[in-house]
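[09:14] KT: can someone run the structure on this one? pasting the chain below
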Amino acid sequence: MGAKPTLMIDINIILDVLQKREPFYAASAGLLAVIERGEALGYIAAHGVTTLYYLLQKGKNSSAARADITSLLQILKIAPVDQETIEQALNLEFRDFEDAVQMISALRCKVDFLITRNVKDYNPALLPVMQPVDFLETM
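[09:31] RB: done, structure tokens below
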């Protein structure tokens, strides 16, 4: 792979790492490590940050959730979600609207890959969608 790949990271990958969810932890942590080392550029969709905060503070508390997100933002950039993103996502035939918004946000950021564990949810895939383990094999 030539230039650094640019990735949209689904929050399920981040939750795998922060909650040490097996059997997914190793591959998801490996993916975030690739981004942290600067071998790839990572994005998280803006709307995913609020969902992530909600899920983290439910399992811990608000200060721990804030700390986790603050750490995450040291390695991931926020992909904007605006009116145009939402309008384009409404035209996708995705089962889950949140996934449609993430796909459009990824396209608008011109990412190379959307990384998720729920590959089947991104159909039609408007850009390559893969699991962390599969992406890591390409590095």
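[09:33] KT: thanks! The first helix runs from residue 11 to 18.
[09:34] RB: yep, looked fine to me
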